Amino acid sequence: MNLSNHISDLLYRYECVILPGLGAFLTQNKAAFIDAKTHTFYPPSKTLSFNRHLQTNDGLLANHIAKTKNITYEAALFRLRAEVKTLKENLEKGETISISNVGSLKINQNSYLEFIPETASNFLTEAFGLSSFVSSKVEREVQKKKEEEPVLLFTPQKSRIPYIKYAAIGLLAIGLSSMGGLYLYNSQVSQHNIVEKQKANSLVENQIQQATFVVNTPLPSLTLEVKKPAGNYHLIAGAFRMEENALTKIKLLKEKGYPARTIGVNKFGLHQVVYATFESREEALKSLREVKLQDNKDAWLLVQELE
């Protein structure tokens, strides 16, 4: 099974794609930028990295394989684990694992798993089809300011008709008298509105004071007690990107007799499903050993106080 196409397709839509038992590919948006030295314009993109600590199956990759191959989720998960096992064996032999359009994985001299991303791939869908380009150097021209033309001052001649001055004075007097009358009218209207508003407020207060409400037989108070699972030791069955996969997992575990439930979403946006929650560490470790032997070898214990 070729995992390259499945991983590449999911990286266009999701920020985290986990290879169960090996690690996770993570993407992060990067804004467009210009290299001033080479005059190269780079479009916005998604930078790609690898985190080997995120190994718990979230169901995303297995579910995508199941839909693409038209097989069951369990069969897809079985194939995925077999493929990851082969990849780990090749890495331990010192081989470099190449994933098309994603990058390559190898174990370096310090025995650390090293990831080299494929620089030619851009998983940002908004920048699909865009590529970097080199622009020629822009020469800026400095324009000289034009000399300002002299402004000719014009001195108007005195009016030969003296009566225009007297007409302007008369119009000004009429305008001032009109404004004074308008101001007096507005003052009277405002005073009238204030008086009417006070009357209305008094009427409403009297009606409120006269209204009484008597309940002869008050309803009894209802008290509900919700029992919350106690304990800070949570036996994790899996973490899922899609909530519907988490609910399906809970249903399967309850059919097996486990008090399974979800404890919320972690900082990576994954829905965490637990077999059960315990108050004591000894009881939790005992159940963990039994689950690893009988049901799920990837189960692990989370110590966290829930809100």
- Runs in which pLDDT lies below 50 for 5 or more consecutive residues are 208-215
Summed up, the helix count is 6
Profile the largest sheet: 4 strands, antiparallel
Category from helices, strands and their pairing: alpha+beta
Tally of strands: 13
Q: Tell me the fraction of residues in β-strands, as a range.
A: 15-25%
Helices and strands, in order, run as HEEEEEHHEEEEHEHEEHE
> How far apart are the termini?
43 Å
Average pLDDT rating: 77
Backbone shape: flat
Supply Rg.
39 Å
Could you estimate the helical fraction of the residues in percent? 25-40%
Could you give the order of strands across the largest sheet?
11-12-10-13
Question: What does this protein structure show overall?
Answer:
- The strands form 4 sheets. The chain has a 4-stranded antiparallel sheet. Strands 1-2-5 form a 3-stranded antiparallel sheet, covered by helices on one side.
- Among the domains are: 3-134, no CATH class; 233-303, 2-Layer Sandwich (Alpha-Beta Plaits), CATH 3.30.70.1070.
- The longest helix has 48 residues, at 163-210.
- The chain is flat, with a radius of gyration of 39 Å.
- The two termini are 43 Å apart.
- A hairpin with a 5-residue loop joins β11 (261-265) and β12.
- It is an alpha+beta fold.
- The protein has 6 helices and 13 strands.
- It has helices spanning 3-11, 60-69, 73-92, 163-210, 243-255, 281-294; strands at residues 16-19, 23-30, 33-35, 40-42, 45-51, 97-99, 103-107, 113-117, 133-134, 233-240, 261-265, 271-278, 300-303.
